[in-house]
Amino acid sequence: MTDGRAPLRVGVAGAAGRMGQAVCAAVEAADDLVLAARADPALGVELGDVLGDCEVVVDFTRPEAALDNARACVRAGVHAVVGTTGWDVDALGDELGADRRANVFVAPNFAIGAVLMMRFAAEASHHMARAEIVELHHAGKLDAPSGTAARTAALMDGDVPIHSVRLPGLVAHQEVILGDVGQTLTIRHDSTDRTSFMPGVLLAVRRVGSLDRSPVVGLEHLL
Ligand SMILES: NC(=O)c1ccc[n+]([C@@H]2O[C@H](COP(=O)([O-])OP(=O)(O)OC[C@H]3O[C@@H](n4cnc5c(N)ncnc54)[C@H](O)[C@@H]3O)[C@@H](O)[C@H]2O)c1
After folding, report:
1. Ligand 1: distance of its center to the CA of 82 in Å?
2. Does 110 contact ligand 1 (Cβ within 6 A)?
3. Which of 40, 135, 146 to mutate to test the pocket of ligand 1 (most atoms within 8 A of CB)?
4. Distance between Cα 54 and ligand 1 center (Å)
5. In testing the pocket of ligand 1, which one of 43, 61, 166 has its CB within 8 Å of the most ligand atoms?
6. What is the DSSP string of the chain?
7. Would you give the end-to-end CA distance of the chain in angstroms?
8. Torsion angle of the four alpha carbons 93, 99, 103, 106, in this order, in degrees rounded to the nearest 10
9. Is 205's pLDDT higher than 60?
């Protein structure tokens, strides 16, 4: 560290997973962060047992685990950065009062290109008659539609149907196809590697402690 501050202590929930392993590597490579804990049932480490070591926890787990993990973090006064998709963030929002002990930041997609795709799709939907979304992910993805597709549709005008493709060989991809008389417009984003998400994750880790409200949903709020 060059500014004299102690490195921020970061725990990773889901540390044995595809995203969790990438987050652990990104945290270890950052000078201002220290990897304080790897929690994952696959490693025999419960999140609750390591919260005392962490100032921020990054959660890339499973839809059924994310809400309880975020609750546990806030109760322990640990900020949470949640990338897990397919859970009800509104359920958490109702619980976090003004006396909250820690902040929660949630993003369905931490890749800058995906954030721009959502912004451009929302803008285009004001001007074109109809749109549909095709989202394509690796075969191990548990939720469908993807959190990114659901969020994109929510930001766009009109009813936007979503089609989900799950195949080996894919990582995370989305096309927003807009149609009008005699023309179509396609906006496409591809994450070809999980490192695409890491700058956004680290930005959220550094900023989650200073949010003026919680939960905050969407990387666009930090850009
Ligand atoms: N927001 C984004 O930018 C983004 C990008 C990619 C994936 N995702 C989401 O991240 C999540 C994880 O994806 P993945 O591909 O890494 O999945 P994965 O199945 O490879 O990893 C999930 C890991 O979580 C662990 N786990 C399960 N319950 C847990 C608990 N209670 N506490 C701690 N760990 C627990 C599992 O053992 C597993 O190792 C999914 O919801 C996926 O949709 C989000």
Report:
1. 10
2. yes
3. 40
4. 19
5. 61
6. --SSPPPEEEEEETTTSHHHHHHHHHHHH-TTEEEEEEEBGGGTB-HHHHGGG-SEEEE---HHHHHHHHHHHHHTT-EEEE---SS-HHHHHHH--TT-SS-EEE-S---HHHHHHHHHHHHHHTTSSEEEEEEEE-TT---SS-HHHHHHHHHSSS---EEEEE-TT--EEEEEEEEETTEEEEEEEEE-SGGGGHHHHHHHHHHGGG-SSS-EE-GGGG-
7. 24
8. 0
9. yes
pTM of the model: 0.91
pLDDT tens digit sequence for 127-156 = 999 999 999 999 999 899 999 999 999 999
- Whole-number pLDDT of residue 91: 86
What pLDDT, on a 0 to 100 scale, did the predictor assign at position 177? 98
Query: Quick check: CB of 155 below 6 Å from ligand 1?
Result: no
Distance (angstroms) between ligand 1 centre and the Cα of 13 equals 8
The rounded mean pLDDT for the chain is 95
Alpha carbon 63 to chain centroid, angstroms: 12
Distance (angstroms) between ligand 1 centre and the Cα of 63 equals 8
pLDDT tops 70 at residue 98: no
Measured from the CB, is residue 107 less than 6 Å from ligand 1? yes
Can you state the angle between helices 112-125 and 147-155, rounded to 10 degrees? 30
Using a 6 Å cutoff on CB, does residue 145 contact ligand 1?
no
